[in-house]
Amino acid sequence: MTGYQVRVAGGEADLEACFAVRKQVFVVEQRVPEEIEYDAYDAGALHVLAVGAEGPLGTGRLLYGPEALARTGGEDIGSLGRLAVTAAARGLGVGAALVRAIEEAARERGLSAVDLHAQTHALGFYERLGYVAYGPEFPDAGIPHRAMRRALAQSTVAGYPERSN
């Protein structure tokens, strides 16, 4: 597999690609019931998509504003979710690139932090990206999860955001 591009999903074809990756990873591989994989938040969420020559490789979404409030406790905190990378693309940095793209979109919207609900087996992945777990373990779709948060550095120099690793 060669290079890939990560972009904000635009248009129906990109959204269909995002949903196809989610179906493969969550519904087929992890046996999440399809009726709970897709929800009312999808329509207003910002979706990101990783694409290579082979096709879609990964996706994730950002909820922000009132849609994120129930999950995060603050309208200035985004909610990263539905992060999925195809089996063929795992280990290539696609997941980290998707997370960073979602964080950049959150910064552009003036958000101060990003929350997520991580499957417990993925805690180390998110910790390496600067996320800190808080609260007890809880089940989501029958899979153990933990809440995590990362504060975002806001842009300070000529429109270029600071990166905190």
UniProtKB/TrEMBL annotation:
<feature type="domain" description="N-acetyltransferase">
    <location>
        <begin position="4"/>
        <end position="153"/>
    </location>
</feature>
<keyword id="KW-0012">Acyltransferase</keyword>
<dbReference type="InterPro" id="IPR016181">
    <property type="entry name" value="Acyl_CoA_acyltransferase"/>
</dbReference>
<protein>
    <submittedName>
        <fullName>Acetyltransferase</fullName>
    </submittedName>
</protein>
<dbReference type="InterPro" id="IPR050832">
    <property type="entry name" value="Bact_Acetyltransf"/>
</dbReference>
<dbReference type="InterPro" id="IPR000182">
    <property type="entry name" value="GNAT_dom"/>
</dbReference>
<keyword id="KW-0808">Transferase</keyword>
<dbReference type="Pfam" id="PF13673">
    <property type="entry name" value="Acetyltransf_10"/>
</dbReference>
